[in-house]
Design goal:
The complex is a heterodimer of chains A (488) and B (397). Chain A is of the alpha+beta class. Chain A contains 18 helices and 19 strands. In chain A, the strands form four sheets. In chain A, strands 12, 13, 14, 15, 16, 17, 18 and 19 form an eight-stranded antiparallel sheet that branches. Chain A has a five-stranded antiparallel sheet with strand order 5-6-10-8-9. The longest helix of chain A is centred in the last third of the chain and has 20 residues, at 404-423. A five-stranded antiparallel sheet of chain B has the order 4-5-9-7-8. A four-stranded antiparallel sheet of chain B has the order 12-13-11-14, with helices on both faces. A four-stranded antiparallel sheet of chain B has the order 16-17-15-18, covered by helices on one side. The chains are: A alpha+beta (488), B alpha+beta (397).
């Protein structure tokens, strides 16, 4: 279990007064209450995508403008009150997990698309616009917003910026950082700063790059300028099944070595294949040890040429089956199992932890073998889904949440996998963020001195450590300002 | 001549920085010093160069990853990648001719200045986005790492991005790990003769808004006489497998119909043309002129260009769909004020990229930051370089 710091009793004691003060800053609107203070309604905000951890906050504020966000932050700063930013609450690492003495600032009502500019290929949107909502706003003109996390229907661009979210298609189009031009940034003191905008690159320090993926540690983002891209003429997928993980790993190397960068290159191991097939009936071969889904883009003729080359490469590795989609419908059928993977695993086991490490792609067979051994010794099933082109591994560890021992084991198993990722030259998290989930593992990847330097940079933005506390950085070694009870 | 420190490895570099920090003696940080005439003159009696730290330390073509020490000359890295059919997707420019330097830039220098070439216009084209990991020495002489050698990594604060573009003021880069890309089999260029710059930016926007994969979009106000192209010319580059190019070029040509007469530039001519765009050689800045680099929204660029042409007869070269505006003009404070005002009016940014010391010392070489951000910046600087000894004055007075 991950420890959360004790709440500040002085803040808890002032709860009614704090709620009243926040109400003055964020009044009710036609959309509903600006501030939520009653305990039953606070329950809705007690957790995020890491639902094993729950903690209702002191209050929830639902601002509708940057000015309101700034006013709330200014008030919290002046009164020494902790703040937890929240988008859609889809974080799988507990990035939006509240604290008992913290005010949650929910940005879901800031959901307007402010500007779409096709000539400059950008859109300006508020932080609470969903990831898919951006694409939907520009799809009629043939454009899209590239990063596509699995939660794209629900997750919000503000959260994407804070976690530097990825997706299945970042092999070609990059992660959130590659697709950002600017943000409206609000500091803990309530200062509103425009960073970047419609142009590329800063002339001074790259604040946009530092803020992206900072997990709410440095400030809040209320508006975002994203790149929009013209979609390719078409896309098609193929499926290739192999007799071992080693062979599939060699196929991935051979594809990348051929000069083809597929738009997606997804790997599933035997347990994942079986779970997905039972759920989605996508026609996956059940005698395979590993399966690749490879997607290419271009016009029909280009797709044919690329898929022909890929088929030839896969053919050299004694595949069990090779299926090239001839139509968009057949592509969808190939993707159907993979896209339903989380639901599929959820059907086998009501509870699972979705891990997120990255490894050098050449280490895949070794890492999967070790994960298999750990699965046996922990007595817990695991299914592996992998963005094979960029090394981002998602083991789904199945456990029983009603059995505390099972949960404890699942967490220990997950930690062992992430330590293994670091050991082979990878990292703790490729796209889900550290959050609370991996906080206590940061010492595996970084030295104490490196963590101290990162903490000091946080202090430069947030000297009193009010922003999203108890996330990212291990609790031992925090600067005095983070642990001293603040005046309330 | 300033004293030159040439540590042979990271440990001795860190030791040199620690000693300088203890003695509070500022250091100018450089690789080969290619761009010494860029930004503000550094106020330091001693120079610390990374040029002793050379060599590729990791090369994994199948994983699209390469690491090299910061002092490695760029041509060495590019030759190694060419030999394995790969490249740096950022297309880092070679500014040695622009600065009259006799040595090529180092990897550390390119990353520290965050310089990307024409491919920057695509989402994979920023050098900083290809920096997967760094090792660096902080101003108090400590070796830190950020990132790693894998493509997707969101573990902890991204100090790679903070250090890329910090111009050696927050740390001395010692080793950098980069993401690679396959070298495209072929490339060609469509040259569109346009009536004026705004029409040129419209042609570039049409190409960049197409599904045909335009990987370069530049605008030459005075054409490319060497290729027989006079008057304003918009250039659109396609790169891909050879067998894809004829169809793409045909489709793009159809789309550009109505923007101006289109001609095709192929083979070595096309490659040379984009090198000349990348290195700002086509700006044809005279040796005594100052050179500025502005970044604005592409559609704002023609207005900026007109203003600066009217103000001091600026020579211009536009890249990144129009958004990167190279300007050459007299090395005077009046010209600099005009550039600053034009960048501000366009809500963009500027860098005084090349100028005599006297001008660079007298004016802001990059825009000022809002007070709240400047205060954060000062605190971050104090975290990374507590004694303020790294490249003092390089970015701001």
């Amino acid at each position: 279990m991950i420890e959360l710091p004790p709440p500040n009793p002085a803040v808890l004691a002032r709860r009614a007064e704090i709620v009243a003060a926040l109400r003055a800053l964020v009044p009710d609107t036609a959309l509903g209450h600006g501030v939520i203070g009653d305990e039953t309604r606070l329950k809705a905000y007690e957790t995020d995508g890491l639902s094993a951890y729950r903690q209702p906050p002191l209050a929830v504020v639902l601002p509708t403008s940057t000015a309101q966000v700034a006013a709330v932050l200014r008030y919290c700063h002046q009164n020494g009150i902790r703040v937890v930013p929240r988008g859609a609450g889809t974080s799988l690492s507990g990035g939006a997990l509240p604290l008992a003495d913290a005010v949650v600032i929910g940005l879901m009502r800031m959901n307007r698309i402010l500007e779409v500019d096709y000539d400059n290929r950008l859109a300006v949107v508020e932080a609470g616009v969903t990831n898919l909502g951006i694409t939907q706003a520009v799809a009629a003109e043939g454009f899209f917003y590239a990063p596509d996390p699995s939660s794209q229907l629900a997750c919000m661009i503000g959260g994407n910026v804070m976690m530097n979210s990825g997706g299945a298609h970042c092999l070609k189009y990059g992660v959130t950082a590659n697709n950002l031009l600017g943000v409206t940034f609000v500091t803990i003191e309530g200062e509103v700063i425009e960073i970047g905008g419609g142009h590329l690159d800063a002339a001074g320090y790259d604040w946009l790059g530092l803020i992206t993926g900072s997990e709410g540690q440095l400030g809040l983002v209320t508006e975002v300028t994203v790149r929009i891209l013209r979609a390719a003429e078409g896309a098609r997928a193929m499926l290739a099944a192999f007799r071992s993980n080693e062979v599939a790993g060699q196929v991935v190397d051979a594809i990348i070595g051929s000069g083809i960068i597929p738009v997606a290159l997804e790997f599933m191991d035997r347990p994942a294949i079986h779970a997905c097939e039972a759920f989605a009936h996508a026609g996956y071969p059940l005698d395979a040890e590993s399966l690749l889904i490879i997607e290419v883009e271009g016009n029909l003729e280009e797709q044919d040429i690329l898929l022909g080359k890929l088929k030839e490469i896969c053919g050299r590795f004694d595949p069990i089956s090779l299926r090239v989609a001839e139509t968009a419908e057949e592509s969808l059928a190939i993707w159907k199992g993979r896209k339903g993977a989380f639901g599929a695993v959820g059907r086998i086991s009501p509870d699972y932890l979705c891990m997120d490490g990255t490894i050098p792609t050449g280490e895949l067979p070794h890492v999967l073998r070790r994960i298999g051994e750990m699965s046996e010794s922990y007595g817990l099933q695991v299914a592996n889904i992998f963005h094979a082109g960029d090394g981002n591994l998602h083991p789904l560890i199945m456990f029983d949440a009603n059995d505390p021992e099972s949960f404890r084991k699942a967490e220990a198993f997950g930690a062992d996998i992430l330590k293994l990722c670091v050991e082979v030259g990878g990292c703790l998290t490729g796209e889900h963020g550290v959050g609370v989930e991996k906080r206590d593992l940061m010492g595996v990847q970084f030295t104490r001195a490196e963590l101290d330097r990162q903490r000091a940079i946080k202090s430069a933005f947030d000297p009193a450590w009010l922003l999203n506390p108890a996330k990212v950085f291990p609790l031992d070694g925090l600067p005095a300002a983070a642990t001293t009870p603040r005046a309330a | 001549m300033t004293d030159l420190l040439l540590p042979p490895d990271e440990a001795s570099l860190a030791e040199a920085v620690r000693e300088a920090s203890a003695a509070r003696l500022p250091l100018a940080i450089e690789g080969h010093g290619t761009r010494r005439a860029s930004l503000r003159p550094v106020q330091a009696a001693r120079t610390l160069s990374t040029r002793g730290l050379t060599g590729i330390t990791l090369n994994k073509p199948a994983e699209l990853v390469l690491s090299a020490r910061a002092g490695t000359p760029m041509p060495e890295i590019e030759a190694a990648l060419a030999a394995q059919g790969q490249m740096l997707p950022a297309e880092p420019p070679d500014f040695s001719a622009l600065f009259g330097a006799d040595r090529p830039a180092t990897l550390g220098g390119m990353v520290a200045a965050h310089l990307s070439g024409p491919r920057r216009i695509g989402p994979g084209g920023a050098l900083r986005d290809q920096v997967l990991g760094v090792r660096a020495v902080t101003g108090d002489g400590e070796v830190i790492r950020s990132g790693g050698r894998v493509h997707k990594n969101v573990t902890g604060l991204d100090l790679c991005k903070l250090l890329a573009g910090s111009h050696g003021t927050l740390g001395v880069l010692t080793e950098i790990t980069l993401k690679l890309a396959p070298r495209p089999e072929g490339s060609l260029t469509l040259a569109v003769r346009v009536a004026e710059l705004a029409a040129g930016v419209r042609a570039l926007s049409a190409g960049l808004g197409s599904p045909f994969g335009v990987s370069g979009a530049a605008l030459l106000p005075r054409g490319a006489p060497a290729l027989g192209l006079d008057g304003p010319v918009a250039l659109l580059r396609l790169e891909d497998f050879l067998q894809f190019l004829p169809h793409r070029a045909g489709a793009l040509r159809g789309l550009l119909d109505g923007h101006g007469a289109v001609s095709l530039v192929e083979g070595e001519d096309s490659l040379a043309l984009w090198r000349a765009v990348r290195d700002a050689a086509l700006l044809e800045a005279a040796p005594e002129q100052a050179v500025w680099r502005l970044s604005v929204k592409p559609t704002a660029a023609p207005g900026v260009a007109r203003t600066l042409e009217d103000s001091f007869g600026a020579r211009l070269l536009l890249d990144w769909g129009g958004g990167l505006v190279w300007v050459a003009g007299p090395a005077t404070e009046a010209a600099h004020r005009a550039v600053m005002a034009a960048a501000q009016a366009a809500r963009g940014t500027f860098t005084l990229f090349r100028a005599p010391d006297s001008l660079r010392a007298a004016v802001p070489v990059v825009p000022d930051e809002p007070a709240a951000l400047a205060a954060i910046g000062a605190r971050v600087k104090a975290v990374m370089d507590p004694m303020g000894i790294l490249n003092p004055g390089r970015l701001r007075a």
